[in-house]
Sequence to fold (128 residues):
Amino acid sequence: MTFERFEDMDVWKDSRVLANRLYDLTARPEFARDFVLRDQIRRAAVSIISNIAEGFERNGNKEFIHFLYVAKGSCGEVRSQLSFAVDRKYLGESDYERLYEDLVRISRQLSGLIRYLRESGLRGSRFA
Fold:
């Protein structure tokens, strides 16, 4: 399968939806007052979509894979921050569980894409 644009990739689309949901949740008054956590979780969520895009645009599989790993790391960062947000009662269990599942799914998508790019023998980021 070939992609001409990163915007066509399901993992980027899913990550974009997730980042928007996190922005909405962190705008709630109880969460919004914790500027440090709110800003950090937002940066990490945007880092996921940004690194997918940046890696894709680098035009080389090695660089693309590197940026996909950074995006995957940001998934873990958001999961950790969400756990802390639940501890602080900024977020309910149902919101946490849904976001957690989405983050795990995105992380798996990233792992699958990394594995495919490593095993494919294709060169260039237009292959996914």
About this structure: The mean pLDDT is 93. The helical segments are 10-26, 29-32, 35-57, 61-87, 93-120. Residues 81 and 116 are 29 Å apart (CA to CA). The radius of gyration is 15 Å.
